[in-house]
Amino acid sequence: MEIQVMEDILGKNDQIAMENQVLFKKEGIFVLNLLGSPGSGKTSLLEKTMAALKDEIHMAVIEGDLFTSKDADRIAQYGVPVIQINTSGGCHLDALMVQKVLQKLDLVNLDLLIIENVGNLVCPAEFNIGEDSKAVVLSITEGDDKPLKYPLIFKESAIVVLNKVDLLPYTNFDMAAAQNDITSIHPQINVLEVSCQKETGLLAWYDWLRSKTAAKKALCTEGET
Amino acid sequence: MCKECGCSAQSSNTKIQFFVKGYKEDTVDEVERTLLGLPGVYHVHIHAHDGETTIDYNPAKTRLSEITAIFSEHGLDAVI
């Protein structure tokens, strides 16, 4: 009789994610897990964010991609510390991958760490990497049917950035239906309409990041006293 | 959820089917939306004509009693 040995992959991941979380809490760093399909505009959103907030908030970025350092190269141009993780075909980042590169960052002097996950609407949502919040970027060109087709990522995310709204006139994307579906799946979620290309709607995104970063810092300062 | 690539083959989601009496045209959307808004509920499909209601959910995040409570709140009679 063959006995199949199953490993609790998610349980092991959650344990390491918790270790990451303890470290982030100790240093008062707000950690965002940035999710979305390939081409949704995650890196473009990060570029705008770096340009707008790098002189105000001490930030760093971890880039997750199957191959290449193309995204990290784009972020590095803004003078923000960036680390590239190549998963070599893996469809998501896990907590161990993140833990292994944390020593390369100056965590003591960091307020905000954004981890851009591998472009994928399914698997990355399942793996906690120690983040405080998940954010999902959905572009107009992907279609308004995606929230109901991929509910987990919207259920798990604290905020959804609907990107490329400048292309609305050229698509059949139904904004009202999409927003209704998203808030049905996750009634408390924040929904932002932005265009990274035209630089519209981004102020609300920056404010959300500012408030979350400040709240995390305050929480950790309270813990010290 | 992701069983195709095997990275999370031990999905903790489960599918449950109810037969619900008392659906009215105007309550179906509301019940569907309310169920979908529960933390561990990922998909809800209601056949209003015969009351067949299928729900994909994670029992670790939402208790069955929370689901049945939604039916009760809308005056519906649900059996598994």
UniProtKB/TrEMBL annotation, chain A:
Keywords: GTP-binding, Hydrolase, Metal-binding, Nickel, Nucleotide-binding, Zinc. One of its GO terms (biological process) is protein maturation. InterPro entries: CobW/HypB/UreG_nucleotide-bd, Hyd_mat_HypB, P-loop_NTPase. It comes from the Bacteria. Residues 31-192 form the CobW/HypB/UreG nucleotide-binding domain. GO terms for molecular function: GTP binding; GTPase activity; nickel cation binding; zinc ion binding. Gene3D superfamilies: P-loop containing nucleotide triphosphate hydrolases. Belongs to the SIMIBI class G3E GTPase family. HypB/HupM subfamily. This is Hydrogenase nickel incorporation protein HypB. It comes from Propionispira arboris.
TrEMBL record, chain B:
This is Copper chaperone CopZ. SUPFAM superfamilies: HMA, heavy metal-associated domain (SSF55008). GO terms for molecular function: metal ion binding. It comes from the Bacteria. InterPro entries: HMA_dom_sf (IPR036163).
